[in-house]
Amino acid sequence: MATVAQIWRYPIKSHGREALQSVPLSADKTLPWDRHWAVAHENSTAD
Fold this sequence. Notes:
The chain is an all-beta fold. It has a domain at 1-20 and 31-41. Helices cover 0% and strands 13% of the residues. It has strands at 7-9, 18-20. It has a two-stranded antiparallel sheet. A hairpin with an 8-residue loop joins β1 (7-9) and β2 (18-20). The protein starts with 6 loop residues before the first strand and ends in a 27-residue tail after the last strand.
């Protein structure tokens, strides 16, 4: 049986991670608030 050693989420894309003790998961959904926000400036391109 597999076990999860650590859970990390990145609330702001490319801006550091947040350790989670537990997280509610739902079928066909992403990790809640993972990469929910992004910061861009006028010279950047969105991906």
